[in-house]
Amino acid sequence: MPLETAASTVVAVPTTNDIEIRAIDLGDEADLRAWWEVGHAATAERPGKPWPLWEQSRRALPAPNPERGIVLLGAVDGGQMVGSGMLTRPLRDNLHTAMTFAFVAPGRTRQGIGSAVMAGLEALAAAEGRTTLQSEAYVPSGGTAAVEGFAESLGYTVASRESIKELSMDDYARRRSDLPSGADGYRIVTFDTVCPDEHVESFGRLLGMLMDEIPLGELDLESSEWTPERVRAAEQRQVDTGRHVHTAVAIAPDGEVAGISDVRVDDTDHEHAQVGITLVHPTHRGHRLGLALKVATHDLVGATYPSLRTVDTSNALVNTHMNAVNDALGYRSIETMLELQKVL
Ligand SMILES: CC(C)(COP(=O)(O)OP(=O)(O)OC[C@H]1O[C@@H](n2cnc3c(N)ncnc32)[C@H](O)[C@@H]1OP(=O)(O)O)[C@@H](O)C(=O)NCCC(=O)NCCS
Questions:
Q1: Which residues line ligand 1 (CB under 6 A)?
Q2: CA-closest residue to ligand 1 atom 33
Q3: DSSP states of 294-319 as a string?
Q4: Residue of the nearest CA to atom 17 in ligand 1?
Q5: Rounded distance, CA 217 to CA 63, Å?
Q6: Cβ(87)–Cβ(98) under 8 Å?
Q7: Taking a C-beta distance cutoff of 8 angstroms, is the pair 70, 100 a contact?
Q8: Which CATH number fits domain 20-130: 3.30.465.10, 3.40.50.300, 3.30.470.20, 3.40.630.30?
Q9: Domains 20-130 and 167-335 share a fold
Q10: Nearest Cα residue to 217 out of 45, 80, 339, 87
Q11: Which of 3.30.559.10, 1.25.40.20, 2.40.110.10, 3.40.630.30 is the CATH number of 167-335?
Q12: From the alpha carbon of 111, which atom of ligand 1 is closest?
């Protein structure tokens, strides 16, 4: 089965009515916009900032990325897009995995459209030899959502549960005087996206440990090597798409990067930011580096973007230490994310 994203590529999928499932042409802005609108409408009821701004998607989705391949599908009924899907797959590591996402226009749910989109995504993933499919479902804290029944009907199981949290920068400002600056014995270095030359090798070494160190529940993911070249290429892609990865690293007395944390801000939106990764090397834990790094990045984005209102993050419910750090900063839980997995 072809995996090109040309608009002419049609995935043959049985549907309950005459709905065509076809690939979106990433180079066709009108097609991409119609796809974006479905996801925007399908996520409109969720709290926080559940869907990227059009300007962000318009720039980021078509941008070439040797780390990750994307195919977008649309479910089209009489010329109107009523469902959409996204398949992403890592191209450098975890080649057995792919991620699937489906969205259905409000008013068109329970008509088999979501299942048809997922069948198209799964067929594409299987044709490429991907055997472990992963997805994400967002449900209100302590509540339920359509997606749970949907995921179950398609054979996905919950591999891990994460809490989605939001911080109001006003709350952070109120708490800031009670939070420490820095950590004894370590130097905190901050930068916008591009790691200083003297730290890049060590930075990559720590980054390579990420998948082994974060709680993944049952998720079948492996770590991989981050050479300075790979780090530099990833940084350049962020620069090219207008994303600022405001990063803090903790430098140990021996010069090694002992911890990393970042907050990401897009050029198109200076009101909302997202935490990317936070990781402290196992031999440097217990020195409150997680807190010190997060305070450093939040101070930095607060000072850089006076219009910044909220920062989002997510972390596993079982990740007690990270949850304690986020609570101290003033983060509040707004949703639960179910990490879903299905082995083909
Ligand atoms: C989740 C979503 C994609 C489902 O799309 P859909 O087109 O309504 O799904 P389908 O009609 O193919 O449903 C297939 C099966 O899923 C289950 N299901 C779907 N919605 C359900 C609901 N609200 N409650 C219980 N079960 C449900 C049922 O078993 C259903 O089969 P049935 O209608 O014969 O009983 C849609 O509700 C949506 O866009 N939600 C918001 C975005 C989202 O959460 N996306 C998921 C990210 S992967």
A1: 42-43, 101-104, 109-115, 135, 137, 146-147, 149-150, 153
A2: 110
A3: HHHHHHHHHHH-TT--EEEEEEETT-
A4: 150
A5: 31
A6: yes
A7: no
A8: 3.40.630.30
A9: yes
A10: 339
A11: 3.40.630.30
A12: 11
Query: Which residue's structure tokens are 């559940």?
Result: 50
The 10 Å Cβ neighbour count of residue 108 is: 19
pTM tops 0.90, yes or no: no
Domains in the chain: boundaries: 20-130, 167-335
pLDDT in tens, 150-204: 999 999 999 999 999 999 999 999 999 999 999 999 999 999 999 999 999 999 9
Q: List, for residues 63-77, the tens digit of each pLDDT value.
A: 999 999 999 999 999
Terminal alpha carbon distance of the chain: 17
340 CA: nearest ligand 1 atom: 48
Q: Hey, which residues does 264 pair with through a beta bridge?
A: 245, 274
